[in-house]
Specification:
about 260 residues; mainly beta; 5-stranded mixed β-sheet; 4-stranded antiparallel β-sheet
Length: about 260
């Protein structure tokens, strides 16, 4: 065992250890965090894209653009009558000789075409596996002639833990209020073809209950003796109704249907 976040009298934390901590908390993918302007890009001119401040996490590797600043990226001139797609990536790079690492924005220039230009290929890479280059797609830049006509975000922005907790709480509250149950009483008839049970019956859920309570999602059967029976719930295509099929050992049986209504 080796301490990471602790003083041991000498520099000891490696970039690989730091990335592993980030991967354990956020994931092994590539994301932009909820910080600053979240690396929002804007078209400054037909030759310049500005990417605003924020923090990204690329396969556990963190990098930032300083708050209230931006990175300026040059776009090569387009050609009259031609279309082109450039790709802005955040490129992780490790020098093969020195081991020095960097993470910077880079423009990958596409190939001009009269129609349907292709998006440039990029290097996926695996930083923790030791790859020297790993690209994170950030923005796709579409040029028509000399004009930049479209700027499309390619990355995912992750939520903070506080926001996710709040959303889970809201979801739990919504689901709790959305779930309803209704009990249907029915009398079964003797049947020798449903062992280990001896009684069988079927029924349908009225359309009025579907409108009131929502979508049926579960079913259970309680016999008069409080012992459980067996039941199945299905959509009867031929009759266009929700049907339940019940087996038990007693004629008098209660069928409990659970409904879900989200609106």
């Amino acid at each position: 065992m080796e301490i990471i976040t602790g003083y041991v009298g000498k520099p000891h934390v490696t970039s690989e250890q730091d990335r592993d901590v980030h991967i354990g908390m956020i994931g092994s993918g590539s994301y932009v965090l909820q910080t600053g302007k979240r690396m929002t890009a804007e078209i400054s001119s037909n030759n310049e894209i500005k990417v605003r401040d924020g923090v990204l996490m690329h396969q556990g590797c963190a990098a930032s653009i300083k708050k209230n600043t931006y990175d300026s990226l040059s776009i090569v001139n387009g050609s009259q009558g031609m279309k082109r797609i450039d790709l802005i990536v955040a490129r992780y790079e490790r020098n093969k000789n020195t081991g020095v690492e960097s993470l910077t924005l880079k423009v990958l220039k596409g190939t001009p075409a009269s129609a349907n230009p292709a998006t440039p290929a990029y290097t996926t890479g695996d930083i923790q596996a030791g790859d020297y280059i790993a690209d994170m797609p950030m923005y796709k830049v579409t040029l028509d002639g000399i004009n930049i006509t479209k700027l499309e975000k390619q990355f995912q922005t992750v939520e903070t833990n506080a926001t996710l907790t709040q959303k889970v709480n809201v979801l739990n509250s919504t689901l709790t209020s959305a779930i309803r149950t209704k009990t249907y009483s029915m009398t079964l008839t003797a049947n020798n073809y449903v062992p280990p049970f001896s009684m069988f019956g079927e029924g349908t859920i009225p359309d009025a209950d579907i409108k009131k309570y929502g979508f049926p999602i579960a079913i259970c059967v309680i016999q008069k003796s409080s012992a459980p029976g067996a039941a199945a719930l299905r959509w009867h295509t031929g009759r266009s109704v929700w049907q339940y099929i019940v087996c038990s050992d007693q004629a008098e049986t209660s069928v409990i249907v659970t409904f879900l209504k989200l609106n």
